[in-house]
Amino acid sequence: MKYVVVVFFAGLIVVEGVYAFLSYNLEQKEKIDISVNAASAIVMEADTGRVLYAKNADRKRQPASTVKVMTAITAIENSDLDQDVIPTRVVNMVEPTVAGLKPGVKYKMKDMLTAILIKSANDAAIAIAEGVAGNEKNFVAMMNRKAVELGLENTSYANASGLPAYPEMSQCSTARDLALIMKYAIRYPVILELMSQPKMVISGDDGKKINLATHNKSLFAKEGVSWGKTGYTRKARRTFVGVDPSPKPRIIIALMGSDDLWNDIAILQRKGIEAYEKRHTRLINKILRWMSNNKFLKRFMLKE
C-alpha cells in the first residue's frame, strides 16, 4: 500500500512538471491577434499570472482612478469593514467625482469602499485614508509599501484617489502592474462583489441616503462585460483594470491611455477569454496524450 501511495504522488509530481513544461512551450508559440486603441494594454491569466497579450505593458503612465483598487486593498488589510469612518472637512475640498459625504457623520468602512469602487468617489477615498491612517499622507505611504511588497517596480502613489499629482509621474503605474494589483485584489470577495454592482445605496448615521451609480458602462454591454475599475483624467485619458464576470475570474485585463474605452474592453475581454479557453483545451489534450503514451504511467494504472 505504501508503495502504491509513493508511486501515485510521484506520478502527480511528474504530471505537474509536464503541465508546467507544456504550458511554457504553448505560451511561447501562441500569439493573440488583438488591436486596441489604448496606448498600453494587457491580458493576464487570473490564476497563473501568465500574459496572454501585451501592448506597451511596461510603459509608465498615469493610472487615474484605477488607483482606488490599491486604496481598497490597503483599507481592507488595515481596518474592519464594520469600522466607523467619520469624514473631516477635508472631504469638502476634494474635486468631483464625489459621493457627497458630510463631515462629522458616521459611515461604515464597507460603505466607503462601495463609494470608491462603484461611483469612484474621491471624497470617500479621502475619508478612507483619514479613517485608516489619520491623514492621506500616511495612508499613501502604506499604499506604496504594499506596492513594494507586491513587487511593483513601476508603480508609485501620491494620493488615495487617483486625481492628478505633481510632479506628474509621482503617481504612475503600468498595464502590467495594474493587472498584478487586480490579481492580488480578487482574493477579497468584497472587491469583486462591489465591482459587479451597477448601483447601490449607502447612508450614514444621519439617515441620509446616498445613491451610487457605476462609471463602468461595460456592465450594461451585450458582450465584453467586465467587473472592474475605470479611471479618467485629461492626461491619463481612459484607464481600466478588471476581470471577466465570475466569482473565480479566468482573465484580468488592464488598459491605459484609451480614447475608445468600451470597445477596447470588449475586444480584450472577448479575445482574452477565447485565448484562455483555447490554450487550456490544448494544454489538457497535450497532457492526456502524454499520459496515454507514457509507459511508467501505463504500468501504474494497470496495477490493481
Describe the structure concisely for a colleague.
With 304 residues, the protein is an alpha+beta fold.
Structure description:
The strands form three sheets. Strands 2-1-9-8-7 form a five-stranded antiparallel sheet, sandwiched between helices. A two-stranded antiparallel ribbon has the order 3-4. By secondary structure, the protein is an alpha+beta fold. About 9% of the residues have low confidence. The protein has a single domain, classed as DD-peptidase/beta-lactamase superfamily (Beta-lactamase, 3-Layer(aba) Sandwich). A hairpin with a 5-residue loop joins β5 and β6. The protein is built from nine helices and nine strands.
CATH class: Alpha Beta
Q: On the 0-100 scale, what is the average pLDDT?
A: 88
What structural class do you assign from the helix and strand content? alpha+beta
The percentage of residues in β strands lies in 15-25%
Descriptors:
about 300 residues, alpha+beta, Beta-lactamase, two-stranded antiparallel ribbon, 9 helices, 9 strands
Give the secondary structure arrangement, pairings included.
Blueprint: H1 2-29, E1 40-45, E2 51-55, H2 67-78, E3 84-85, E4 107-108, H3 109-119, H4 122-133, H5 136-149, H6 175-185, H7 189-195, E5 199-203, E6 209-213, E7 227-233, E8 237-243, E9 251-258, H8 261-293, H9 295-302
Antiparallel strand pairs: 1-2, 1-9, 3-4, 5-6, 7-8, 8-9
Helix pairs in contact: 1-8, 2-3, 2-4, 3-4, 4-5
